[in-house]
Amino acid sequence: MRDDKSRPKRGSAMVRVGGGAIAALLSLSGWATVQHSWSEGLPWWAGFRAEYLATPIAALIAAVVAITTAWWGVANSRATREVEHERWEKDRATDSQRVTEQRREATERTLRDRFHELIKLLSANDLRSREGASYALAALADDWEAHYGTGSDDARAEQQVCIDVLISQLRDPIHTQDESLDSVQQIAFKQVVQKIISSRLVRVLDGRPQPGPWSDFDLVFDGCYLYDFVLQDRVCAGDVVSFDGTNFSGQLASFIGTDFPATRVSFRNAHFDSNQVVFNRTSFTGSTASFDGARFSADSVSFDAVRVGARSISFNAAQLEASWVSFGGAFFTGPFVSFDRTRFTGDQLTFDGAHFTGKRTSFNGADVDMRVATFAMVHFTGGQVSFAVATFQGRHVSFDDAYLIANVITNAARFDVSSLSLNRAITTSTRDNFAALVGLQSFEDDGAKFEMDRADVPECQDCTKARAEEARSQSRPRVGRKGS
User: Fold this and answer.
1) Three-state SS for 260?
2) Which of 376, 412, 368 is CA-nearest to residue 393?
3) In 3-state terms, what secondary structure has residue 307?
4) C-beta separation of 223 from 248 below 8 A
5) Which among 360, 362, 361, 369 is positioned nearest to 397, based on CA atoms?
6) What is the pLDDT of residue 462?
7) Tens digit of each residue's pLDDT (9 = 90 or more) over 247-273
8) DSSP structural state of residue 235
9) Where are the beta strands (DSSP E) in 174-239?
10) pLDDT tier at 35 (50, 70, 90 boundaries)?
11) Which pTM does this prediction carry?
């Protein structure tokens, strides 16, 4: 719309033009009269007659008035049109907004209708229908995000419902001893759902895994029955990732390379009945991680090279029954690590090359019934490590080449083993503290250094690097909720 302030300017311009025209006409007429008076030998004013100019001046004034009146009429008409155009634009915008809102409501109704239809299919007994509905439900979760916008609280709420419903499809028990067609189809259905969820927990950028579209949602698998569950190189960064009471069966349960920056990660009372359980290179960098009460019954259980920066991780009262249990090369940099009352049963347990740099590591009341238990090259460099009331049974326990710089507590510990070795170990504790556990005849300490002052102990470069990495990890923004 044109600025109304231009109108007075245009009116004054018309007045100035009219006034100038009148002045010019008077000047021309006056000059002609003066020249005539001079030619007659009369004074220059003698020839002036007002009646000679009255008619032209009147005509000119009338013309100016007419032009000004016409201009004001045109200007007012234009202003009226502009006001009407503004009103039309505003009405059109209102109508457009109304149409957009109607379309939005219609889309939302369609999405909700789709959800209700999928719930019906997922409640059916036909596994083929449930499988198709599972794929559709995952697509619906993505459509909610497209509808409300990425990071929208409304979108997140609807997506979380879809994820929870999808996970609920994994809670039907598996009858692994039953080789009927129904059992085979049930296992196949579960594996489809597992893959749907797993595929949305990662996206690969420049050849490197990054958080996927569902990585920052809560994943609650409590009470699920999973078969050959594989969650490798994924990112689980919601507030809660829980497998409490979950049953793992099949040949493999694998979490290799998966990052858990979730606030709370829990495997409480989970049952691992897979032949192989693998957590190699898994990272727990949130607040807490718990395997309390978990039961592992497998050929091998491996936590090799696991990285634990969480404030606490615990295996309290867990049972690890396997031929091979390994925490080799694991790094525990969080403040609290607990294996209290944990029971290890099988052939070999190893913590070889593991590093514990936190405030307190506890094996209080642990029961280690393994043929061989090795802590070779283990580094306890934090504040305290306690084996109080722990029991070791078997052939041999080794702390060879270990760094036992933390305050080592062995009150009421029992080592019912053939031999205990600390060859080439470095410790701030006394020799008698360890020798008394098994008796001098069963104790080996070739090259060991006892009662070392912490200040005199060479700094472990791996421990220093681990602390630095943990500090950098804590300083980085947490991967988590979009839009938060």
Assistant:
1) strand
2) 368
3) strand
4) no
5) 369
6) 75
7) 999 999 999 999 999 999 999 999 999
8) B
9) 203-205, 208-210, 219-220, 225-227
10) low
11) 0.79
The pLDDT, as a whole number, for residue 105 is: 86
Averaged confidence pLDDT in the chain:
86
Distance CA 204, CA 16 (A): 75
Asked if residue 53 lies in contact with residue 24, where contact means CB atoms within 8 angstroms, the answer is: no
Sign of CA dihedral 47, 50, 52, 53: positive
Per residue in 140-196, pLDDT tens?
A: 999 999 998 888 899 999 999 999 999 999 999 987 666 677 788 999 999 999 999
Strands 203-205 and 208-210: antiparallel
Q: Which amino acid type is present at position 86?
A: E
- Judged by DSSP in three states, 395 sits in strand
Summarize the chain as % helix, strand, coil (round to 5): 40, 25, 35
Q: Radius of gyration (Cα) for the chain, nearest Å?
A: 44
Question: What does the angle CA 9 – CA 12 – CA 13 come to, to the nearest 5 degrees?
Answer: 85
Structure tokens at 145: 């995000």
CA dist 410 and 387 (Å) reads 5
Instruction: Report helix, strand or coil for 221.
Output: coil
For residue 401, the SS3 value is coil
Phi (first) and psi of residue 225, to 5 degrees: -115, 110
Q: What is the residue type of 71?
A: W
